[in-house]
Amino acid sequence: MAIDIASFVAVSRQAFAAAGLGPADLMQAADNSRDKGSPLGVTTDVLEDRIEWLEDEHEVEIALDKPAADVLLLVSSIELMKYPDSIVAMATLLNHAGVNWTLSSKGYESTNFGFLSGKSDIAKIMITRITDAAEAVGAKTVIVPECGHAFGVLRWSGANILGRPLPYEVAHITEYLANLKRAGLLEFKPMPDAITYHDPCQISRRGGATEDARYLLDGFATGFTEMTPTGNYNWCCGGGGGVQAIGRAANVRHEVFRIKMKQVAETGSDAMVSACSNCRLTMDESKAALGWDKDLLSLVEILADHLTGSKV
Question: What residues pair up with 197 in beta bridges, in sequence order?
């Protein structure tokens, strides 16, 4: 019927927020984003310290505050604090392909808890920071990292929230890497491990980037098997829509993960790969709670680990 249910949910959240209602932890994450720069309190100083540490630890150049760049890369605080190897992987892949890119201390947080909580003023602040950062360096492309929610908000709602057309193209990291692979700038040695792929809702079903992840896996992940259902019909991780940040919803998330466990078992895979740090965090917590013995992997991390060919 072409009814966008998510838009009705968003308006309802705005009404609840205006009335002073809503999950306290979700509201606090939004306030942290406004006051500190990110929902987990990652300030500019923390960002700079983490980037310096990652460069030294992994001997990789991570561009920060270049005066001019074609591409602005965003990160999520989940990656910075929980999965920093994902940032190293993105830097490694972009550097290898010769991309002129940078992170910006003026606008680095990809997640938008203002949108998730229904606090419209904070949602606009987060989009404005990204846009100001992109315009300052002249970036024509903004890459969203492995975060489905961040991709959905910026790609499909960003212009409406900002109040004007976005002066850049928004690409999820899988979309951008797929284009680099099509251009012959990225090559990978085979990975024979038995894996399957979890489609983040906001990237695949709602985002339209379902096939790019599979294009990246094609010819590289020789032990890849699709789960059932898959693609645009895959089950949610259980943490979508801000549910990951709501403590009292933990048991619900664990029950949803039982569905994912069953799906993976049916494929005979040893690991489940995804391209969303929110999915990864949600499922890692359920994995620990339920004692699941399979691995949860990042798509960009396994791509960087199997990178081959001459650097540009």
Answer: 273
